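User: Could you check the structure of this?
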Amino acid sequence: METGNPRAIELKLPSRLGYEKVAMNTAASVARLMGFSEDRIEDLKTAVAEACINSMEHGHNLDESLKVGVFLSMNEDSLEVKVCDEGPGMRGKVPPPNIDLKMEGEESPRGMGMFLIQALVDEAEWTSSPQNGSCARLVIHLHKPEEE
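Assistant: Sure, the predicted structure tokens are below.
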């Protein structure tokens, strides 16, 4: 995490379900201070909670001794949230979920987290390496970028 931004916040959370609410509520408070609408704040809360749960479950197998790092960086017109774990990350490309099969009950309803996150924020990307762990980077813009 770059420490040069004076408007940055860092959280270290145990990999225990329930602690995602700390990250979710911190992100919501920061977004409110920045002037985001309540609708956008609700989207952000859901995306941050989902990213944290993914790190806790898939990155750390709910090992409470391993910490999930949550880094919030405020910029003039956007809020960036990074959620990082020590896990190996995804192996290969994860195929998009088949929504129809999930809705019809023919596939497990699980596995929609990344799809959901991408739908809720303006930018989402995932990086991983065996040495550095995995990070989800989420960005919401105060004002939607103009369509080109």
